[in-house]
Design brief:
Elements lengths: L2 E6 L7 H9 L4 E4 L8 E5 L2 E5 L12 E4 L4 E2 L1 H15 L6 E4 L3 E2 L2 H13 L13 H9 L12 H21 L7 H15 L3 E2 L1 H10 L4 E8 L19 H8 L8 E7 L2 E3 L12 H10 L11 E3 L1 E2 H11 L3 E5 L9 E10 L2 E3 L5 H5 L2 E8 L16 H14 L2 E6 L7 E3 L1
Parallel strand pairs: 1-10, 1-11, 2-5, 2-10, 5-7, 6-8, 7-9, 11-15, 14-16, 15-19
Antiparallel strand pairs: 3-4, 12-13, 16-17, 16-18, 19-20
Helix pairs in contact: 3-4, 5-6
The structure holds guanosine-5'-diphosphate, 6-O-phosphoryl inosine monophosphate and magnesium ion.
Magnesium ion binds next to loops.
Organism: Candidatus Aphodenecus pullistercoris
InterPro entries: Adenylosuccin_syn_GTP-bd, Adenylosuccin_syn_Lys_AS, Adenylosuccinate_synth_dom1, Adenylosuccinate_synth_dom2, Adenylosuccinate_synth_dom3, Adenylosuccinate_synthetase, P-loop_NTPase
Keywords: Cytoplasm, GTP-binding, Ligase, Magnesium, Metal-binding, Nucleotide-binding, Purine biosynthesis
Length: 423
């Protein structure tokens, strides 16, 4: 296996957690490389059902070292409740999760500002953030006024950093009529975090390098999908980091040439949560049916997900940009009762035909062009081998494979760990 990256190649919620959980059973190390607790990765295995936010999906294998990587943003309060929850449901103690000292801290003011900034946006400009403080935290990182996990290990340094940055933060909070913070109060909060997590904050670079150089099985877990990438997604309706293979190298500290395999996770249809263009969105009964059968409600916010058909133009862009070597097609079973299944193969924008993905403002005006497939109209959830899939489902999969030019190695037919066909 050596170094494998798992990336979302749509708008998020493709089933990354489910695929990482499966692959992690053979991994010695799992690294979450970007994002924060805006993630909602569902894992169902023999220990129970879990909605993971910041904890890497390899946590269930006690032998696997899980690292919350340098490229992430961490809220230690939500991390504590998440670990408590995993421990109480699984009945196992969690002591295999480490945090790189370079990971940025989501502070209470980041969450408050996220909510306030979103509140000020007009309806047509709303990003629909998860209000977890992700944008404000990454902004501070880029402005070099962020706090990092390692900073809480040195109280004098932490205090100096807070004295530098807090006056401006408080002015921002006052502007929105929000509560302000004192240095002492935040130093005390960080001391409580140090008490609980101090011994798990590490410099992961030498550890990861040693693992790479010794050919160990390492899995890099992405959050969200490229369509909400800060550079290559639907900016400004994006997240504030890069959930791509390039982002994985940076956020996990892995040289690009060390990556052996890139698994792109793709739903057999599509969904999106939050604002921004989404060209194949359905507003009819098919959309409602996808939402109901697919259980398409956010893990982190509970919001109903926008649902639509598979967009092969966007998927092709995503495969190229991520250098995807293998696809994991999830939720095939959700299409079991559709008589007609559509895929988007191009767009019309301002009277012109497009077979490539344009930037955000053009996407807003895009009208999808569809090709239709006959549905297979039978249950696939019990299939475990390629030969057991109905012929029409095989054709659907082979056509996607042909058009994207990437082998579909994994086909998921249910949320549970064993509901998977490996080709
Ligand atoms: P992630 O954020 O990419 O990890 O995906 P989410 O966990 O947010 O959303 C995927 C949802 O689909 C979860 O509720 C999973 O339990 C569920 N799921 C994953 N794979 C399958 C599948 O093959 N079939 C069905 N029916 N559900 C699936
Ligand atoms: P997983 O990891 C789906 C969306 C939000 C919003 C935009 C920016 O489960 O795939 P943010 O809080 O990051 O500033 O929000 O991105 N978003 C997600 N959508 N799945 C997620 O995570 C998401 N994380 C953020 O809805 O539009
Ligand atoms: Mg999710």
């Amino acid at each position: 296996m050596s170094v494998t990256t798992v990336v979302g190649i749509q708008w998020g919620d493709e089933g990354k957690g489910r695929i990482v959980d499966y692959l992690a059973s053979q991994a010695e190390m799992v690294i979450r490389f970007q994002g924060g607790d805006n993630a909602g990765h569902t894992v169902i295995n023999d220990l129970g059902k879990f909605g993971l936010h910041i904890i890497p999906s390899g946590v269930f294998n006690s032998e696997t070292m899980n690292i919350v990587g340098a490229g992430t943003v961490v809220n230690f309060d939500t991390m504590a409740s998440e670990i408590d929850h995993i421990q109480s449901v699984s009945g196992r103690s969690v002591d295999n999760v480490f945090i790189d000292r370079r990971a940025h801290l989501i502070m209470p003011y980041h969450q408050l500002l996220d909510g306030a900034e979103e509140g000020k946006r007009s309806d047509d400009q709303k990003i629909g953030t998860t209000k977890r403080g992700i944008g404000p935290c990454y902004s501070d990182k880029a402005s070099r006024v962020g706090l990092r996990a390692g900073d809480i290990l040195d109280e004098d340094w932490l205090r100096k950093r807070l004295e530098l940055l807090l006056p401006k933060k408080n002015r921002d909070l006052e502007y929105y009529g929000l509560r302000t913070f004192t240095v002492d109060e935040l130093v005390a909060k960080c001391a409580a975090w140090r008490e609980r997590f101090g011994s798990y904050i590490i410099d992961s670079q030498p550890v990861v390098r040693e693992a790479v150089e010794n050919g160990r099985n390492i899995l890099l877990e992405g959050q969200l999908g490229i369509m909400r990438d800060n550079d290559w997604g639907i900016y400004p309706y994006s997240t504030s980091s890069n959930p791509t293979t390039a982002g994985a190298c940076n956020g996990a500290g892995i040289p690009p040439r060390a990556i052996d395999k890139v698994v792109g996770v793709i739903k057999a249809y599509s969904t999106s949560v939050g604002g921004g263009p989404y060209m194949t969105e359905l507003f009819d009964e098919d959309g409602e049916k996808l939402r109901t059968i697919g259980g398409e409600f956010g893990v982190t916010t509970g919001r109903p997900r926008r649902c639509g058909w598979l967009d092969l133009v966007a998927a092709d862009y995503a495969c190229y940009m991520n250098g995807v070597s293998d696809l994991a097609l999830t939720k095939l079973d959700v299409l079991d009762s559709f008589e007609k299944i559509r895929v988007c193969t191009g767009y019309m924008i301002d009277g012109e035909y497009y077979n490539h993905l344009p930037d955000t403002l053009y996407q807003e005006r895009a009208k999808p062009i569809y090709e239709d497939f006959e549905g297979w109209m039978c249950d696939t959830s019990k299939c475990r081998r390629w030969e057991e899939l109905p012929a029409k489902a095989q054709s659907y999969i082979l056509e996607i494979e042909k058009r994207l030019g990437v082998h579909i190695t994994y086909i998921s037919v249910g949320p549970e760990r064993d509901q998977l066909i490996v080709r």
